[in-house]
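Complex 627.
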Amino acid sequence: MPKMCLEALKSKMSERDCEKLNAIANPKVQKFITESCELCNPERIFICSDSPEDIVYVRQQAVSRGEEKPLAISGHTYHFDGIEDQGRDREVTKYLVPKDDLLSKTLKQIEREEGLTEVKGLLKGAMHGRTMIVRFLSLGPANSVFSIPCVQCTDSWYVAHSEDLLYRSAYDMFTQKTEQSELFCILHSAGKMNEAMVSVEAEKKCIYIDHTKDTIYSVNTQYAGNTVGLKKLALRLTIRKADREGWLAEHMFLMGVHGPNSRKTYFAGAFPSACGKTSTAMLSGEIILGDDIAYFRSIDGECRAVNAEAGIFGIIQNINPNDDPVIHKVLDTPGEVIFSNILVKDGKPYWLGMDEKVPKEGLNFSGEWHEGKTDKKGAKIPHAHKNARYAVALRALENVDPELDNPKGVKLSGIMYGGRDAKSYVPVQESFNWEHGIIAYGAALETETTFATIGKEGIAEINLMSIQDFVSISLGKYIQNNLEFGKKCKKSPIVFGVNYFLRDKEGKFLNGVKDKHVWVKWMELRVNKDVQAIEGPTGRIPEYEDLKILFKEVLGKDYKKQDYIDQFTIRVPENLAKLERVEKFHKENVAGAPEILFDILNQQRQRLLRAKKQFGDYISPDSLKKS
Ligand code: SPV
Ligand code: MN
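Predicted structure with manganese (II) ion bound:
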């Protein structure tokens, strides 16, 4: 074993930390830590070996340094992010692109050298007087074909602690490997903080992704989506790796759905942030495997999937014991939970839509809060932020899948794509085949911006496969890779389109929040060929009789025929308009969009026009059934 603890590092490390670092032979690790130390100039370096003592130490430091504060329930803490640091920041998250290279037009990018100079300028000396924490983690189960080793250097104990809950510790995986394997490197500093340990220089926030070196830089931010590098920042690198190696990295949940006779069928689902992804993955009575990032590989011709993560960084708004019993229990019983950007009063957290009386004052992301408090612009500050979150390990959930850490993953049978589509798509439909599903539901996914990213809410946009912000290869190539993946599987998963946000003419939602459970059960039956479906112009839709039974079984509800007709009527003009928007988007923004994409969209148009000729603009599912 080479003696790696260099002089520069040695003076900042305990003997024990030197030993821990020396046990890792990969020279890239040593180089990254040395360079990070030289740049950020921490007072001390702590190497986290994932031993129980080290894990406890990280947790304790997060509290003793004040980045987290304890709540009344044992194991629960809270953390605040700055008022301008309450979500993923699209504007300042950029790819570092070498001269002569250009990524998709929809992505923020900056010339690599210029960007490196900027971000390194901001990181220079940023850890002065602080400890640099070094963590070794794995995306995907450790020691598996899916694993991606990651090293994170950060001066935030909150970030290091969050990683405990959200990812798989992998110090041992690093010590066991002797060769110079590929890894992702993440360097983060919270930058200047105030006495409440909140980053204060939001105007100097900078999150840059250097895909040429698989390295991420993040500074002057604490919001986990901008700092826990293994989340969306690493996803951008993973998509490139998957492209090189012939597999898929997706912004998807993974869940097991129970079918008749103890059957368990696995589904993945892509939804833009705050569009129902986590609540679908957590449906009570089903099995959760992941809520945000999934990897798919064809192994011996079978589509196998793993969760890249091991925990949930979930939106807390509207969580209540009735709709979300599983997670609510975790948030209400002793165990490790980090709440962020909630209201705190007398050691208890409060959030928006929680079904409980909220105090008129307390502490929140704006500091001391009282009812009626306004911000600089005079707008009322809510008691908690809409994007307030909780971080928990999946193992804390009683319905977690025992397959979570299976190095071979699980066999995936279905995929669903859902956006925020008020007008066109029906609540659930099945594609005619893999290509149709990928294009007509995935690549055509329309939504609205939400509070999960900083900026204006409710702006209509296309968010291809709900992953557009993170696609670091050309969008055309990304679509092509998805199309080809289906061919690598002997039996590709069945692709469904779901839409939880369909509205009537008055703007009222046509479905209740719990109806998604029925759609999920219907998809499970379809995958296993237990029920028939009706051929519609945009996909196969459920028969009323099957949904009626499921509504009764799953929700104990009488499903009225009129509700079915309202929800599943094919709206031809709205669907034709959707196709126009989607085609325009792909023509203008998607370099190298595969020809087949336009063929599939055009075939959909022809089916809609034929149906319109026969049945008119608004087609009841009953008419289709008889045709
Ligand atoms: C999302 O916004 O899609 C999330 C949370 O899953 S994060 O990306 O971490 O902000
Ligand atoms: Mn997400």
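The two ends are 74 Å apart (CA to CA).
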